[in-house]
Recover the amino acids of this structure.
């Protein structure tokens, strides 16, 4: 029946996923049987007792036994389903003490992750396989919701407080995660990739940011970083004014800043703008860009600068 | 189908023809008797009062939860309200409730003059209440104890980064919303009382027809009843 | 119009007694507010308020002798308000507030320690 | 003086059609605008809510068309951008919920039929009835004004802090919803007073038609829940205007508290939507089965039980929203209780059909469609009530599909069925039975094409309110969009033949279906004051036994 389950449900990426799927499939078959029974009765009665002029129908007002049976049986069934749902949900609600903790800060429309060692990523997480991982989440603006379909978990992210979610990934490779609480224009673009690594790969990735970048030209890698790290949300590449200045033609230009002076946009300026974005803000823009310190590894900064150079 | 019909030509008011109210100009065509019409109006009014309870209730629930969120701020903010003024307004409203119910009694016992006098005293009480409220409000305005982002008061104990905790502004948001909504009800009440006072002085009400007096009375008592809860919640619990 | 059967004088006397009782209760509740019962302050004040409200409903609003349906409607209003409060409190009183390892000061959870860690106020607020 | 009726001849009770009926007793636009006749107000509501349904439906078709391809392109041009899309689905939801479904059956059909069923001349407060119609109109106008001022992009749920900080006409829309709420309150208040005090002589509570029971239960919710919606909208508007600090955490508020406020109304509100639908089905099934209803009391009590239980389960919208774990568990347990009365109704309807004498005219086809679609809607509700499956399914298309099965497959199907059932009474005309069946078939097929697919989209992880989606979902989205065209076609055909029937001369008999409730006693269309003679009820409703004449 695996193929049948996969028609309806995404691949299973965690132990919890199997729990959810078992209940889901039970409810599916139960519903199928009940629905077919109801549909059969309705259609069969409509056909079997179809209209004959003058026929007198029996005067059946009620049947207490039958009515008790069809009230109590569903109730018992509901009790079973409730406890089944509760039992598996407890495993979602209570995180084990030894979980690795990752902090999520969600904002329109970007996911920021912070690891215990202080490294940060955006829209891209790596987690070790078969280790419970717990996310402590908060939002900087409106409600968001961290939803990982393969793990069968989601939870709202509420500004002003922290909420928690956890799972144990069991399947290596890429899993999709996405925002499930409506948060405005970029809601449906607020998604990213979760990579489940072996323990060793994960450690290495944490230290170096991985070595995927080596197989790309710097400007291509920079282009990818623009998408992944959320630069694209505010900085256009075609000259359109966004939340921040467009990157088109910005490299090598003298820009007037909000402090009234003009500065040359060169490698040093760009690097400073990523690490301390509000030190020099281009005039007429708001100082709202978050720092990408820890979020960008050296290869990412090099790549982004190389990419911006190409946008003339 | 087992339904029979009554010939209306012979029995123009159907069942329950107990003989009163048929010639009353206030009798509406879809009611059989004046009594049925009166009972129906009362059910309608009580349903409306239940919606009022839930409308105000939402604010009470919000106030309670915010109090639990900012207990210290709320405790401190309570001190800005003057207990004697709250107590005075409570007495005024309770007294007006009594004059109201005496007004209803007068209408029901065909005492036209007493009805008008009691209604006028009730209206007077309402104005006294509003006068006291005006005094209280202007005091709050002077001190900057205002709702939401209008809050300008200085010298609050709990400060965060040099600004007063948002709990203070929230307290006064609720204070102004709840007493304000209550005040709006008082103003509407004054209009209704004036309306039935005018009709009463024209002699429109008698023991057979005094529904508007009774319904406005119920409304007025509800306004009083809500104040009975607002008073301790804002002025006494500190 | 069940009130027809009452004697108007007796009825007026009942209203007068009700008013006096309400005024006495007001005096009691104001007096009690100067005594500190600690956590019971709220209970005392709201109990007296409820007694007063009941008196108003029963006598001034005639519920005592009125058709039962009107009392039922009034009770339903308060009952459903009670349900609203009860379930909302159920949530608020049993919430857990997890904290991250690297607490960012600007988003401290306010419910845990309301005074000290209330969320920061935005600059435009002032 | 009394005359007994039997059901054996459905046309019995026909008399020469009175020259004057409620439609032509007075003429001119003003005579309609100032009417206090519940029948005319019902007709005006019918026109108004179906117009709202049309507008909301257009937005729905636009949503589906946008999602046809992941690129949202039609003939090489991007149809609408993400911002517009958000406004369109918000308007679809807000219009359908507040302007259409909530007032639909109570405002139009119940307004028309309820006093007739009770043998009354009008509702208890006719002027209030007209006032609540004008409140609806005011709300509708404000909703249109909000569209002119940039429309709302918050979703119909107005979740804070998005709704308290977003830059557009949320203020006007909350005012519209506030006013529409009071329109709904006054309708409910009117019905409760009518049911209590204006029943025909001899009609006890358990002699009332089940439609009246359902409408009564609905009215209780309208009166007790809607005020909280009103105050929620006021608080939201004040939060936006003055930062009062209740819902926005930046100024000390709690966004989850908003959800409590909102769902305390909006969950009972789904029973405001579905109970009248169930009530219509409880009328249609015995009439077309020509058999007494099975379990009258069980159906009546289950309506009331649903109305009351509906108040205890709102937290099941918030299982992953950040409410406490204990609240989540309690709300889940209570949610399962709702399944019982819903199931009881379904089984009672089937038992009524058993050994009936069933003819499949259009209203009955809609009733059977209702049973099938509501069964799916109800059963998928169990997936969402169970805690662990809900974690995966909530906020996905599974929820979208579930509530469309209940709200559209349930309420709207019942509403259309009810319009057909009472069309002869309201207009005095019979519609084309052939086109009626074609329309019903298209609606049924189109509906299932549109929404059955969405269960699969949702369980496979497609979140709701998404403009962009992964390519893997495209086939299902496309199929759903094709379904929406079939559905739209079915609804258009239905509107067309119903309107076409108005051009015919009045040909409807007083009791075309052989119904046993009092509205069939009067002429079609009824006279201005409903009955020439005050009807008196002597036996329980839905009695299809051959009659022994009791009165000489």
């Amino acid at each position: 029946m695996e193929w049948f389950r996969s028609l309806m449900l995404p691949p299973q990426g965690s132990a919890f996923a199997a729990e959810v799927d078992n209940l889901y499939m039970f409810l599916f078959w139960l519903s199928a049987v009940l629905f077919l029974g109801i549909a059969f009765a309705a259609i069969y009665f409509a056909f079997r007792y179809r209209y004959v002029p003058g026929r007198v129908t029996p005067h059946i007002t009620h049947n207490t036994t039958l009515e008790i049976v069809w009230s109590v049986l569903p109730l018992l069934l509901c009790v079973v389903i409730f406890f089944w749902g509760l039992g598996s949900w407890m495993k979602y609600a209570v995180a084990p003490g030894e979980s690795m903790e990752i902090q999520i800060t969600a904002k329109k429309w970007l996911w920021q992750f912070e690891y215990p060692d202080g490294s940060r990523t955006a829209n891209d997480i790596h987690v070790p396989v078969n280790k419970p991982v717990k996310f402590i989440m908060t939002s900087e603006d409106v409600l968001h919701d961290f939803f990982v379909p393969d793990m069968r978990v989601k939870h709202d992210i509420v500004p002003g407080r922290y909420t928690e979610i956890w799972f144990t990934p069991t399947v290596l490779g890429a899993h999709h995660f996405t925002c499930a609480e409506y948060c405005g224009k970029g809601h449906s673009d607020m998604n990213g990739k979760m990579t489940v690594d072996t323990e060793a790969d994960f450690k290495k990735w944490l230290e170096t940011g991985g070595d995927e970048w080596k197989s790309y030209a710097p400007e291509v890698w920079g282009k990818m970083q623009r998408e992944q790290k959320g630069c694209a949300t505010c900085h256009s590449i075609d000259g359109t004014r966004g939340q921040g200045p467009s990157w088109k033609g910005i490299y090598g230009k003298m820009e007037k800043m909000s402090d009234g002076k003009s500065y040359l946009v060169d490698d040093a300026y760009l690097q400073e703008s990523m690490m301390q974005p509000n030190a020099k803000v281009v005039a007429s823009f708001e100082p709202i860009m978050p720092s990408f310190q820890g979020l960008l590894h050296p290869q990412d900064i090099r790549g982004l600068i190389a990419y911006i150079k190409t946008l003339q | 189908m087992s339904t029979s019909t009554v010939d209306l030509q012979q029995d123009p008011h159907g069942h329950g023809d107990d003989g009163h109210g048929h010639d009353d100009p206030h009798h509406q065509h879809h009611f059989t008797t004046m009594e049925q019409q009166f009972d129906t109006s009362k059910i309608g009014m009580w349903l409306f009062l239940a919606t009022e309870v839930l409308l105000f209730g939402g604010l009470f629930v919000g106030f309670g939860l915010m109090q639990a969120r900012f207990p210290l701020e709320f405790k401190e903010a309570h001190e800005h309200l003057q207990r004697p003024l709250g107590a005075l307004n409570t007495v005024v409203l309770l007294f007006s409730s009594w004059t109201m119910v005496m007004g209803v009694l007068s209408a029901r016992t065909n005492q036209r003059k007493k009805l008008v006098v009691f209604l006028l005293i009730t209206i007077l009480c309402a104005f006294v209440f509003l006068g006291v409220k005006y005094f209280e409000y202007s005091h709050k305005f002077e001190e900057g104890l205002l709702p939401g982002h209008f809050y300008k008061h200085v010298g609050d104990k709990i400060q965060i980064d040099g600004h007063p905790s948002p709990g203070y502004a929230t307290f006064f948001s609720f204070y102004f919303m709840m007493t304000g909504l209550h005040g709006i009800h008082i103003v509407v009440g004054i209009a209704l009382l004036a309306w039935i006072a005018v009709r009463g002085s024209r002699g429109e009400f008698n023991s057979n027809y005094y529904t508007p007096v009774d319904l406005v009375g119920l409304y007025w008592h509800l306004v009083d009843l809500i104040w009975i809860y607002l008073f301790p919640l804002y002025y006494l619990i500190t | 119009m069940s009130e027809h059967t009452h004697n108007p004088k007796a009825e007026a006397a009942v209203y007068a007694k009700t008013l006096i009782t309400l005024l006495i209760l007001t005096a009691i509740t104001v007096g009690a507010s100067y005594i500190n019962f600690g956590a019971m302050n709220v209970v005392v004040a709201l109990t007296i308020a409820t007694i007063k409200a009941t008196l108003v409903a029963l006598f001034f609003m005639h519920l005592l002798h009125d058709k039962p349906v009107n009392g039922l409607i009034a009770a339903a209003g308060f009952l459903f308000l009670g349900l609203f409060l009860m379930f909302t409190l159920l949530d608020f009183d049993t919430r857990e507030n997890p904290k991250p390892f690297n607490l960012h000061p600007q988003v401290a959870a306010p419910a845990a320690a309301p005074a000290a860690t209330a969320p920061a106020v935005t600059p435009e607020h002032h | 003086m009394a005359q007994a009726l039997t059901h054996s001849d459905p046309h019995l009770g026909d008399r020469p059609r009175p020259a004057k009926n409620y439609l032509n007793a007075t003429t001119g636009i003003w005579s309609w605008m100032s009417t206090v006749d519940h029948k005319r107000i019902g007709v005006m509501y019918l026109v108004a809510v179906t117009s709202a349904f049309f507008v909301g439906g257009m937005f729905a078709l636009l949503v589906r068309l946008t999602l046809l391809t992941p690129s949202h392109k039609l003939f090489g041009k991007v149809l609408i951008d993400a911002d517009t899309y958000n406004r369109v689905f918000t308007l679809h939801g807000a219009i359908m919920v507040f302007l259409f479904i909530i007032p639909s059956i109570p405002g139009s059909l119940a307004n028309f039929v309820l006093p007739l069923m009770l043998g009354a001349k009008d509702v208890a407060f006719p002027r209030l009835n007209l006032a609540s119609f004008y409140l609806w109109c005011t709300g509708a106008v404000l909703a249109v004004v909000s569209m002119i001022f940039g429309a709302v992009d918050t979703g119909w749920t107005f979740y804070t802090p998005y709704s308290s900080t977003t830059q557009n006409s949320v203020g006007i829309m909350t005012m519209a919803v506030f006013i529409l709420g009071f329109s709904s309150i006054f309708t409910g208040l009117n019905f409760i007073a009518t049911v209590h005090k204006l029943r025909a002589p001899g009609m006890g509570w358990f002699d009332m038609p089940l439609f009246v029971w359902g409408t009564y239960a609905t009215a209780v919710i309208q009166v007790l829940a809607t005020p909280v919606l009103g105050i929620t909208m006021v608080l939201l508007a004040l939060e936006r205007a003055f930062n009062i600090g209740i819902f926005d955490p930046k100024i000390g508020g709690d966004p989850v508290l908003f959800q409590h406020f909102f769902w305390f109304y909006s969950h009972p509100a789904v029973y405001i939507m579905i109970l009248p639908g169930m009530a219509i089905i409880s009328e249609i099934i015995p009439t077309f089965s020509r058999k007494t209803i099975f379990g009258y009391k069980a159906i009546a009590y289950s309506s009331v039980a649903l109305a009351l239980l509906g108040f205890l389960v709102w937290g099941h919208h918030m299982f992953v929203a950040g409410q406490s774990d204990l609240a989540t568990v309690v709300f889940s347990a209570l949610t399962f209780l709702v399944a019982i009365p819903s199931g009881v109704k379904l089984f009672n309807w089937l038992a009524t059909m058993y050994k009936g004498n069933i003819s499949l005219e259009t209203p009955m086809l809609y009733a059977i469609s209702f049973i099938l679609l509501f069964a799916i809607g109800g059963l998928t509700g169990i997936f969402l009530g169970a805690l662990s499956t809900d974690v995966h399914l909530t906020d996905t298309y599974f929820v979208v599909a579930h509530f469309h099965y209940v709200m559209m497959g349930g309420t709207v199907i019942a509403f259309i069925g009810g319009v057909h059932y009472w069309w002869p009474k309201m207009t005095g005309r019979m519609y084309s039975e052939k086109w009626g069946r074609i329309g019903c078939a298209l609606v049924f097929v189109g509906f299932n094409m549109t929404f059955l697919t969405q269960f699969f989209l949702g369980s496979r992880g497609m979140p709701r309110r998404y403009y962009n989606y992964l390519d893997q979902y495209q086939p299902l989205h496309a199929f759903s969009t094709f379904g929406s065209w079939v559905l739209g076609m079915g609804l258009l055909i239905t509107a067309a033949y119903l309107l076409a029937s108005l051009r015919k001369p009045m040909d409807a008999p007083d009791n075309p279906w052989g119904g046993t409730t009092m509205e069939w006693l009067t002429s079609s269309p009824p006279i201005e004051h409903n009955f020439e003679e005050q009807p008196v009820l002597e036996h329980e409703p839905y009695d299809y036994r051959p009659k022994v004449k009791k009165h000489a």
